[in-house]
Design a protein that fits this description.
2 strands; mainly alpha; about 80 residues; single chain; two-stranded antiparallel ribbon
Amino acid sequence: MEFKKCARCGCFFVTDGDVCTSCMPKDRLDIFKLKNYFEENNNYSSVQNISISTGISAKNVSRYINNGNFPNISL
């Protein structure tokens, strides 16, 4: 484990993930929303459009895609 800065809220924490324990449930919910969005939509035109459609920040949409949560999606 290492000392990290949470990718969501910016607080410092010690864990293996990239978000603190307070933000983990929020990340799980966002990933669930994105999974549903990708299953229901074929047009992934841009991170910004996905963000607007899902209510998930563009920063987090990019982070989830770049972290490999959605390996079949490329933008």
